[in-house]
Write a structure and sequence with these properties.
The protein is an alpha/beta fold. It has 14 helices and eight strands. The chain has helices spanning 38-46, 73-87, 100-110, 134-142, 148-151, 157-162, 166-177, 196-199, 213-226, 229-236, 238-244, 266-282, 299-302, 304-318, and strands spanning 3-8, 11-18, 23-27, 50-54, 92-97, 115-121, 257-262, 286-292. A hairpin with a 2-residue loop joins strand 1 and strand 2.
Length: 335
């Protein structure tokens, strides 16, 4: 196997599919691709597992739906379950980074029988519900400082700035969110009249110890081809997510779970220790919380060896044997 196109109910997925054995599904966030797990795929396959890393909806060579509702965690989770059906995968460990984390835990909440284990990278499980519509909260915060969550809301605005300068944007954002920079410094800039490139830092020359020219070129070529609109749709789905996630407010996740993040990740800085405490209370089978020193948001790239060791160990603890001919796969209906 390898990189291939899979059609599911008229929807086109592009996936990297490597190895045999119990499955591990790797869900990326913004601005990512299935390629964002390039350092995890081979170690998982070599350890006896099947690593499936899709370009998520809106990215790469996977379809880009026009309707914002198609980018909610519930909608994408249901698509992932149907992808498992077509791939003949009964259960899988789900790994989620950034936007991929709430999608992964939504699969666990809605279809726990399909989830052997859950690995959350960078974003801790959040059982609480925002007190107001997210776009309204973002608008209020943007009165105080530049906030990308608000800047990305209006269709076409960020695309006009970022699509023609995809390589520059990616390099500057990767650096700004890494352990080598303090991302919250962008908040020193006011919002009015500024785009994202006006507030992101100038970067050191490549290669860095976790990203080289060829790797950045791969991302840049894909986003130059597709634009950022598909990825930005995930931000524009915040309000829709707020609506459809109400039934899961306060819900506990009952599958074995591992959490890994960089201790310099701005998500950790902004959420604070209380977020980790809330996750511990809402995830009874939490197998570990690991904050890797000096790493930022892209922990699976910045600390690939440590993440791979933790990931393979966790999968080996929770993964079930593959189905045999005497245990045929049965497609489950969605709720």
């Amino acid at each position: 196997m390898g990189s291939r196109i899979v059609e599911v109910d008229g929807f086109t997925w592009n996936i990297d599919d490597h190895g045999d054995g119990p499955a591990v599904v790797l869900c990326h966030g913004f601005p990512g691709l299935g390629y964002s797990y390039r350092h995890q795929i081979t170690p998982l396959a070599d350890a006896g597992y099947r690593a499936v890393a899709p370009d998520m909806p809106g990215y790469g060579r996977t379809d880009r739906p026009r309707e914002i509702q198609e980018y909610t965690n519930v909608a994408v989770a249901e698509r992932l379950v149907r992808l498992l059906d077509v791939l003949g995968i009964d259960r899988a460990v789900f790994v989620g980074h950034d936007f991929g984390a709430p999608v992964a835990w939504t699969v666990a909440l809605r279809h726990p029988e399909r989830v052997t284990g859950l690995v959350l990278l960078a974003v801790p499980y959040a059982p609480d519900h925002m007190p107001a519509r997210p776009s309204e909260i973002f608008r209020a915060l943007a009165d105080k400082h530049f906030l990308h969550l608000h800047y990305f809301q209006e269709p076409g605005v960020a695309e006009a700035e970022l699509d023609p300068r995809s390589r520059e944007f990616l390099q500057r954002l990767f650096f700004a969110l890494s352990g080598g920079y303090r991302y919250l410094d962008v908040w020193t800039h006011p919002s009015e009249g500024r785009g994202y490139l006006d507030v992101l830092p100038v970067t050191p020359d490549l290669p860095w110890d976790w990203l080289d020219e060829d790797e950045l070129a791969h991302y840049a070529a894909e986003f130059a081809r597709t634009g950022f609109g598909g990825g930005l749709s995930w931000y524009r789905a915040y309000d829709a997510n707020w609506e459809v996630s109400r039934p899961y407010e306060g819900a506990s996740v009952h599958v074995p779970t591992l959490f890994v993040a960089g201790d310099r990740d701005p998500v950790i800085t902004m959420s604070g220790p209380s977020a980790l405490d809330r996750m511990r209370a809402a995830v009874p089978d939490l197998r570990g919380v690991h904050l890797l020193e000096g790493a930022g948001h892209f922990v699976q790239m910045e600390r690939r060896d440590e993440v791979n060791e933790l990931l393979v160990r966790f999968v080996s603890d929770v993964a079930l044997p593959t189905r045999t001919a005497e245990q045929p796969f049965r497609r489950r209906s969605s709720t």
